[in-house]
Amino acid sequence: MKIGVLSDTHIPDRGKDLPRKVIEAFKGVDMIIHAGDLVDLSVVDALSKLCANVKAVSGNMDPGEIRQRFPAKLVIPVGKFKIGVMHGWGPPNKLEDVIEEAFRHDPVDVIIFGHSHQAIQKQKGKVLFFNPGSPTDTVFAPFNSCGILEINETIEARLIKL
Q1: What is the pTM of this model?
Q2: Which CATH number does the domain housing residue 107 bear?
Q3: Which domain does 55 fall in, by range?
Q4: How far apart are CA 58 and CA 35, in angstroms?
Q5: pLDDT for 89-144, tens place per residue?
């Protein structure tokens, strides 16, 4: 299964639309996961045109209508693996600790998160921590990015600089 991963789109505040490079990177994906701070539901509509299977969580900058539609935390089974998704909160230097604690009782193989706008791909024990960064904002990051997960018998992740 090929999964497009993004977070912190902040549309229309930080960008008018999804960047073309995201649309190109997500062609042919089986699922799209958005790790919060959509800011506007039009992001879900745009992603749904690329793939019918869109999962999302709400983030700290999302308004009430998004918080009502999308939970703060998800666990998504994919084959023999489980993906945890949560936006995150607080200072960036404590973000991974916050996320790790939130999934302490959930047996997950991957944790997708956002909030810092910084692309991260690192293994901590048996869990892959994956932050796709932001495709529209570089206030806290050196580049815009998104990500792809390929899940079959193993999990392969890659960050995509935009």
Answers
A1: 0.96
A2: 3.60.21.10
A3: 2-161
A4: 7
A5: 998 889 999 999 999 999 999 999 999 999 999 999 999 999 999 999 988 889 99
